[in-house]
Amino acid sequence: MTASTRRTVLSLYMRVFRIARNWQAQIGVVGDIETEKKYILHEASTLFRQNQQLTDPETIKRCVEECEARIEMGLHYRNPYPRAMHLPPLGLATQKGRKLRAQQRLRKQAKPVYLQSHDDS
């Protein structure tokens, strides 16, 4: 990891913690604010630790883009949780063989940048 990449990643990490410290929920209920703050801190620490050993510059760049997208969406919508993913037509049909592989490919292509670190479930 180059020095500039390391600096970028650390600044994102600190930005997420600053956002969590100053977070105000959309509704403003005290219990919701604390729950959302804990979620932001837990999600950030989990994903940054999970990606700590990455060395490929392209992979690191994708992770940084995902982090920036999630920050911007969270601030815009005042909701720290990832938004739902919209599936393409026929993306959920359970079939076998070639059609199943085609559906899996469609689902993978439809996955937005802010959900790349979440596994398929």
UniProtKB/TrEMBL annotation:
Residues 7-73 form the Complex 1 LYR protein domain. GO terms for cellular component: mitochondrion. Residues 98-121 are annotated as: Disordered. Residues 98-110 have a biased composition (Basic residues). Pfam families: Complex1_LYR. Belongs to the complex I LYR family. This is LYR motif-containing protein 1. It comes from Notothenia coriiceps.
